[in-house]
Design a protein that fits this description.
Elements (H helix, E strand, L loop, with lengths): L30 H18 L7 H17 L2 H21 L6 H27 L1 H4 L9 H24 L10 H14 L3 H4 L2 H17 L4 H14 L4 H10 L7 H14 L4 E2 L6 E2 L5
Antiparallel strand pairs: 1-2
Helix pairs in contact: 1-2, 1-3, 2-4, 3-4, 3-6, 4-6, 4-7, 6-9, 7-9, 7-10, 10-12, 11-12
């Protein structure tokens, strides 16, 4: 069975073809069932690694946990799940072999697709949790938030490793666009939150992921440019990070007009208006 990236998480319950989808919806109504599911998920990833995701029971289990944390906004459990997946990514990169049959390669690609897709949903959950949304501003003393930022940083590094190591398992070495766009969506989501943007390590990790993505797969450059423009227009605090990417990463291939837009927006955002006594004029950045 092939894993097809759905539009929404719940679509995995309604597949009407032979693609990898939810076969059995697990009960997550009690603390005991949640605890049992978490331990099973942890053990499966630890013992079988990323490849377990193409197993139907593991897939159903992961779906149940992701659906649960998405509904309940359980930041602690979400971070633990991210850490498990990150560790599985690291183990895969260091132990995977090129000598794999075509059938096993297909199952492996499905496992990686599913793992990255679920990771994307976990990132969305983390950045939507109350601890994060209430922690507006560049710095926070909230231990949960700081731990979550570190978790995201490690996950992004793991995603970069996966992206650099899995292409050899795809036919012709080029994954489909829907898979590659997951990495872009994860990056964009992280850069849409001020707390994560202001973290130098996380911002640098995301920059490295984006640079590797567009350098290795040039077909993503247009989507990346559009994504960054939308990001800057919606979240002015992301300007500094995006401008830095544009300036230090030629491989991003951003158009001059985009760089100009980002620079002007960033300059305007960080220019203090000074009103001259006795006049209503204020000094702002000039655009030529």
């Amino acid at each position: 069975m092939t894993f097809k990236i759905p539009l929404t998480l719940s679509d995995l319950e309604n597949s009407d073809d032979d693609s990898l989808s939810v076969n059995e919806i697990m009960d997550m109504s009690s603390e005991e069932s949640i605890r049992t599911a978490w331990k099973s998920f942890q053990n499966r990833l630890k013992n079988e690694g990323v490849t377990t995701m193409s197993n139907q029971e593991s897939f159903d289990l992961t779906y149940a946990l992701v659906s649960y944390v998405k509904k309940c906004r359980d930041l602690s459990l979400t971070c633990k799940m991210c850490t498990c997946i990150t560790n599985a990514f690291s183990c895969f990169v260091t132990t995977s072999s090129d000598h794999t049959s075509s059938q096993k390669r297909s199952a492996l690609c499905d496992s990686i697709r599913a793992s990255v897709y679920f990771s994307k949903n976990l990132v969305d959950v983390i950045l939507s949790c109350e601890e994060f949304t209430s922690s507006s501003g560049k710095k926070t003393k909230n231990t949960s938030v700081n731990r979550a930022v570190r978790t995201l940083n490690q996950l992004v590094d793991g995603l970069t490793d996966i992206l650099s190591g899995v292409t050899r398992f795809w036919e012709c070495g080029v994954p489909e666009d829907s898979f590659l766009m997951l990495f872009l969506k994860i990056s964009q989501r992280i850069l849409s939150v001020e707390t994560t943007v202001s973290n130098k390590s996380t911002a640098a990790s995301v920059a490295h992921l984006l640079a590797f993505l567009v350098h290795t797969f040039p077909s993503t450059s247009t989507s990346l440019s559009v994504s960054l423009q939308e990001l800057v227009l919606a979240h002015s605090f992301s300007c500094s990070a995006v401008v830095r990417f544009a300036c230090v990463s030629p491989s991003l291939s951003l158009s001059l007009s985009l760089v100009y837009l980002l620079t002007c927006t960033y300059t305007h955002t960080h220019t203090h208006t000074h009103t001259t006594p006795g006049t209503n004029r204020s000094n702002t950045c000039r655009q030529t």
